[in-house]
Amino acid sequence: MAEIETHKRVNDILLGPFERPALKWFARHMPVWINPDILTGLGVFGAFLILVSYALTNFDHNFLWLANLGFVINWFGDSMDGTLARHRLKQRPKYGFFVDHTVDSFNEVLIFLGIGLSPFMRFEIACLALVGYLLMSVLVFVRTCVTGEFRISYGKLGPTEVRAIAVGVNTLIYFWGNPVWDTAIGGMTIFDFVGAAVAALLFFIFISSTLRQAAQLTRLGE
């Protein structure tokens, strides 16, 4: 088992060339009184805002814009806490690993439940996508302990891209609506199809990555 302090962080995401310079700029210009714990709390606030906003879309679709703001706040807090700690050379590897990823799991539950409580996605599909996301989280954590490589991106996709997809779908639905199509399992909206596709993709990546990693460990005799 690799020590947390020696973990290699891999975040090869599609939006990385834009995200990394932006995060470094924010870290350089962050007020002294803001610390990584405050940013972690800000990310949780963003997740709560997403939950409440989606629930309120049952009364007014304009709350989709508030949900989009929640995704931005959640991204900023979640992405900046570790970036700021590294920039200020104040890393606490074990504390940071524990708090960051337990909080991330909690945030994921809030966000997907919020989507399921909205009028745009069936609750069971939102829960299925949540299961897929949590399975990927488990894979990341276990793989980190076994190989020492903390990989949070698969196929150029990571949490940042998932948030961007959600913001894009919210915007699409606001301007063009969320039509329903009859299927063998009942009415399905655009959001339902996106959620089902995300769930299927997460399950596929989880299964294929798990089998590939197990085969590699078998070959190495570990």
Name some characteristics of this structure.
222 residues; mainly alpha; Four Helix Bundle (Hemerythrin (Met), subunit A); two-stranded parallel ribbon; 7 helices; 4 strands; globular
Commentary on this structure:
By secondary structure, the chain is mostly helical. It has a single domain, classed as CDP-alcohol phosphotransferase transmembrane (TM) domain (Four Helix Bundle (Hemerythrin (Met), subunit A)). The protein contains seven helices and four strands. The chain has helices at residues 16-28, 36-56, 63-87, 93-117, 123-147, 159-176, 190-220; strands spanning 8-10, 149-151, 180-183, 186-189. The strands form two sheets. Strands 1-2 form a two-stranded parallel ribbon. A two-stranded antiparallel ribbon has the order 3-4. A hairpin with a 2-residue loop joins β3 (180-183) and β4 (186-189). α2 packs antiparallel against α3 (63-87), α3 packs antiparallel against α6 (159-176) and α5 (123-147) runs parallel beside α7 (190-220). The radius of gyration is 18 Å and the shape is globular. The N and C termini lie close together (11 Å). The mean pLDDT is 87.
Explain briefly what this protein structure is.
This protein has 222 residues and is mainly α.
CATH fold group: Four Helix Bundle (Hemerythrin (Met), subunit A)
Instruction: Give a short account of the largest sheet.
Output: 2 strands, parallel
CATH level 1 name? Mainly Alpha
Give the uncertain stretches in residue-range form. Answer: none
**Helical fraction:** over 70%
Q: Do you know the CATH architecture?
A: Up-down Bundle
Helix count, per DSSP? 7
Structural class from helices and strands? mainly alpha
